[in-house]
Amino acid sequence: MKAWQHFRTINHHRFLVMKGCFKVGLYRQGLLHDLSKYSPSEFLVGCRYYQGTRSPNNAEREEIGYSRAWLHHKGRNRHHYEYWIDYSTDPKEGIIGMKMPVRYVIEMFIDRIAAAKTYRGSKYTDSYPLEYYEKGVARLGRMVHPETAQLLHSLLKMLARDGEEETFRYIRGKVLKK
Ligand SMILES: [Zn+2]
To answer: What CA–CA distances, in Å, run from 173 to 18, 56, 99, 154, 167?
Structure first.
């Protein structure tokens, strides 16, 4: 059991997200981000499959075929697009991603930066979150609402081009002011 390391990883991640959220004015979300990771359903799994370089959820999936911790997490945390997957009112469409409120798209954006910093360490650059997103985007299909995907993608491109300070300033002044 890597309880101490896992506890520190969560705290470190939450601290990075909090700093980002505070810079754009999302104080409440900054304080409450990922709190469900301290619940037994998520915390104990995280300790058991602690990896250090990637999410423990991946290790749990490999072992039992799915991740109980992740299913618990994505059902409770609105900054994950998976939280917003639901039946369309149009029966022909089936299950699709609903449009996310902008403040949660911003939290998701900051979450991705924080995760990239943690797992990449000194190899992190401002263009890495964009590269990571573009590598996986084709697999998202209709799980992410087009307007949500468009906003996230445009912010990731801005981050790669103009850096974090500039992008956070734009989010605070323009994106969240609307
Ligand atoms: Zn989360």
So the answer is: 18, 36, 22, 16, 10
What is the 92 CA–ligand 1 centroid distance (Å)?
A: 31
- Tens digits of residue pLDDT in 109-157: 999 999 999 888 899 999 999 999 999 999 999 999 999 999 999 999 9
Residue 174 C-alpha to ligand 1 middle, in angstroms? 25
What's the pLDDT at 55? Answer: 87
Task: Please give the distance, rounded to the nearest whole angstrom, from the Cα atom of residue 158 to the centre of ligand 1.
Answer: 23
- Tokens at 49, concatenated: 């499959």
> How close is the Cα of 76 to the center of ligand 1, in Å?
9
Neighbouring-strand partners of residue 87 = 95
For residues 86 and 95, the answer to whether their CB atoms sit within 8 Å is yes
pLDDT > 90: what percent of the chain? 92
How far is the centre of ligand 1, averaged over its atoms, from the C-alpha of 163 (Å)?
23
CA–centroid distance, 33 to ligand 1, in Å, is 7
pLDDT in tens, 30-54: 999 999 999 999 999 999 999 878 8
